[in-house]
Structures are given as C-alpha cells and as structure tokens.
Amino acid sequence: MDLEYHTEQMGHLLVTLHSLELILRICLEKSDDIALDWSALKKDDDVPATVLTQQRRFECLLGEFNKLAEAKNSPALDVKLALLRNAIVHGRVILEKKWLPARLVQFRDEKGGKTKIELNEQLTFDWYHTALRRFGHAYDTALLMAISMNRATVNPDYEASLRAGAKARTDAQPDRKP
Fold first, then answer.
1. What is the tens place of the pLDDT at every residue in 120-171?
2. Residue 23's closest CA among 66, 52, 43?
3. What is the CA radius of gyration of the chain?
4. Domain count, the chain
5. Residue 161 belongs to some domain of the structure
6. Domain with 121 in it
7. Contacts with 21 (C-beta within 8 Å, 6 or more apart), sequence order
8. DSSP 3-state assignment of 121?
9. Where is pLDDT greater, at 125 or 176?
C-alpha cells in the first residue's frame, strides 16, 4: 500500500459518509419542501431549522432512520456503523515510523484525567474494502428508502441495480467487522 492509495481510500470513505448522512437526513425530513438553494446561501443567512440543517449526532440519525425503517417494513442499518464513522471523523490517523498501513485510533470521553481506547485498527487493503462495503451498503439501503418515499430519484437502470444488489446482500453472509 502506498500513500496515494491510503489518501484515495480515506477520501472515498469521507465522501461516502457525507452522502450517507445527507440521505439519512432526507429520509427523516418531515417537510415536503426539502429544497434549499444551497448555492445561494451565504454565511449568517437564516434558514429553516429542519433535519437537514440541525446539528444531530450520527447515532441519533441512525436510530431515527431505523425507527422509520421498521414502520415502513424496510431494512434497518447497522448501528455499529456509528462507532466506525466517529472514529474516521474524530479519531486519529497515525503513521507509525512513516510506514503504511496507517492506524486509526479513537478515544472515549475523558474521565478522571484518563481516557480509554475505543478503537485501534490498522488501515489495510482489507480494512478499507470492508469499511467501504459496509458504508456503501448503508447508503444504498437509505437511498432505496428515499426513493420509495419519493424523496429521491435516480436513473431506472441504477435503481434496478440497487434493488438487485440489496437482494444479493440480504441473501449473502453478514460482513465481517473491519
């Protein structure tokens, strides 16, 4: 593994995480008017407080989405994704002795002057592959829900491939943890 691969994969993960969070918010938004002219917004503009614009923890978004999914008899998302997402967003990516693969370390909240390790994993080829597959699956699941709620539209061929992929994943063995 080289630094370029590591950088590309971390970037891919971050874009996937941003996309997943946005599609979760689109599914959870109760208003029928979810459109904002994003390009026209400026610093200090006032916008309506909605699921799209409010600060919410990722864990809360997953929990709310899973309640909605249950009500709609749709697949839930793995709540363990929150730990991995938080580690990627808030953890430390460490290159030990300037060698790859890097290491991802996430710490718990401090108590009494000490903190515990929440996650400590090497970012190998397999790790990236598994993490991207898990987050991609969550994104596809949420996107299918958004489509079924008429909150998102995609090319019909793409939607068919999403549905076929979702069925294949449902029939397959569960993913191993990264």
1. 999 999 999 999 999 999 999 999 999 998 888 888 888 888 888 766 555 5
2. 52
3. 18
4. 1
5. yes
6. 3-29+45-171
7. 58, 61
8. strand
9. 125
φ, ψ (nearest 5 deg) of residue 119: -155, 140
Contact 65, 27 (CB under 8 A): yes
99 within some domain:
yes
Q: What angle do CA 69, 71, 72 make, to 5 degrees?
A: 65
Q: How many residues make up the chain in this entry?
A: 178
Crossing angle for the helix pair 125-148 and 3-28, to the nearest 10 degrees: 20
Residue 77 to residues 27, 30, 141, 157: CA-CA distances in angstroms?
Answer: 13, 20, 8, 24
Tokens read off for 41? 């917004």
Axis-axis angle for helices 156-171, 125-148 (nearest 10): 120
Q: Which helix (H) or strand (E) holds 103?
A: strand 99-107
Are 84 and 175 a contacting pair, CB within 8 Å? Answer: no
117 is written with which tokens? Answer: 């390790």
pTM across the whole model: 0.84
Picking from 52, 25, 16, the residue whose alpha carbon sits closest to that of residue 138 is 16
Instruction: Detail the DSSP E strand segments found in 2-80.
Output: none
